[in-house]
Design goal:
Bound molecules: adenosine-5'-diphosphate, guanosine-5'-monophosphate
Strand content: 15-25%
CATH superfamily of the domain at 7-36 and 95-200: P-loop containing nucleotide triphosphate hydrolases
Order of helices and strands: EHEEEHEEHEHEHHEHH
CATH class of the domain at 7-36 and 95-200: Alpha Beta
Shape: globular
Amino acid sequence: MASRGILIVLSGPSGTGKDSILKELRNLRNDFEISVSCTTRGPRSGEVNGKDYYFLTKSEFMDKVDSGDMLEWATFCGNYYGTPKHELENRLNEGLNIILEIEVKGAEQVMKNSSEAVSIFVLPPSVQILKQRLKNRGLDSDEAIEMRTREAEREVALAKNYDYVVVNDNLKECANDISKIIDSEKLRAIHRKNIIKEVLNNESVVSR
Ligand code: ADP
Ligand code: 5GP
């Protein structure tokens, strides 16, 4: 019987490299899904509805909030962002690890409401490097970059509330750190209930 998957909250300032880390993590393991969020932000060049985000109007977004369809939601730099509850429980029960790439206010809601969630904060090597990465990405206006950098300092101050803090200096090493965290978390007693039950039933179990 599959053990319940791990609910992983991944936060870090915009431009710190979360998307890049998750792409790198995909080269290391395949046992996770990234939750697709809802947002009222307009799509950036190349972003696909239903894959990168569900792009909603503000009234569509608030309808989902009012019907209790959001696990968490928050505003960030003038836009709304939220995690749809749809299928999340089923996927976890099927044993899939689910990663929520969300900002600090939403992360706080998940940490408060879910005793099983594991939280990871990704730090940039410095605020200066963060700003440079936002510029290099070339997807945000100068005004948006200024707003996101200002927001970053407020977010970094909250890193201490997370279970783990990793630094995205070297992308591969950072993805590897996150992979190690997932491996350790999989061994926690809370995720080992099925395996314990199997041993009590005189079944033989494998080490992972
Ligand atoms: P986020 O998802 O946190 O907003 P991205 O993954 O979009 O950040 O990364 C922002 C920019 O920084 C991208 O241009 C990406 O290629 C670059 N980047 C990410 N990680 C690193 C790294 N370790 N070293 C140098 N550049 C990086
Ligand atoms: P971006 O506009 O750069 O895609 O995302 C801006 C910020 O919103 C990032 O910090 C990202 O992690 C966060 N974010 C993305 N989806 C969600 C979500 O569903 N909920 C919350 N609370 N934040 C999100």
